[in-house]
Amino acid sequence: MTVTITDEPEVLSLARQLGFHPNDRLLIVNCDDVGSSHSANVAALRAMTYGVATSASVMVPCPWAAEAAYMFEGLPVGVHLTLTSEHTGYRWRSLTGAASLHEASGFLPFTTALAVSQQDADDVRAECLAQIETALAWGIDVTHIDTHMDVLHASESLFTIYLDLAQYFRLPIRLPLRAAFSARDLAAARGILSVDQLIYTWPRPTRDVMFEMVPTMACGVTELFAHPVLDGEELRGYDRQHADIRVHDAATLLDPSVAALLDEHGVLRISYRELRSIQRFRST
Fold first, then answer.
1. What is the CATH number of domain 2-283?
2. How far apart are CA 82 and CA 190, in angstroms?
3. Between 224 and which of 60, 122, 169, 199 could a Cys-Cys bridge form, CB atoms 3.0 to 4.6 Å apart?
4. Does the global pTM surpass 0.90?
């Protein structure tokens, strides 16, 4: 599914700001859920080093996030702001320890709905701030922020916290695929950048979606985000429901035919670092 975030004049404007022709088609390929496991770290790093991926997002509260900080040194990595912990036998807690962010078990909630139903807004703000500041303290060159399981897209009040953080750190964001409020207008009013289109593949096979969507991809800046993880006991131990999707994503991002597809259709790959440069130039 492709979701258009903005209209044609703004698509051209963003391309021009980045130094490209308005008819160029620019693609960010982002690896979500870095830090969730060693296997996710390795798959994403391989995808960025040898494949078509250009960007990643790290889940700072997860046990393997610190490893990601040194594995991805110098690469464009954003913070995947994390307020849920969705796996049955593999859980994580917040950095700040606020009671409103946790279930009775002491872990972050399983679902977005549970998280939103019990969160205190001040606790959410403090936790997300701590996650970004921790990533920076680890030496990650934070290029953008997005949100795990769409928690910060769930309401306008949560989205306002998201925008506040983006504005404070002068970072671009990923807008929601859909929302009950005008997310694009709210971000634009604050001068916060995002891509013009999103290609959302889950749970369809990413390779199939790319071969379907890339030939007719719109001009401007598009993001496709995937969830690559190496196959093996670690992945199969913590994600028994969606492991095959993650394994497929890892293979797709390394597939030479996918790189050839992008080249054939003149799709130029960039990262969120380029958007951050424009964001910070506009903020000076």
1. 3.20.20.370
2. 23
3. 199
4. yes
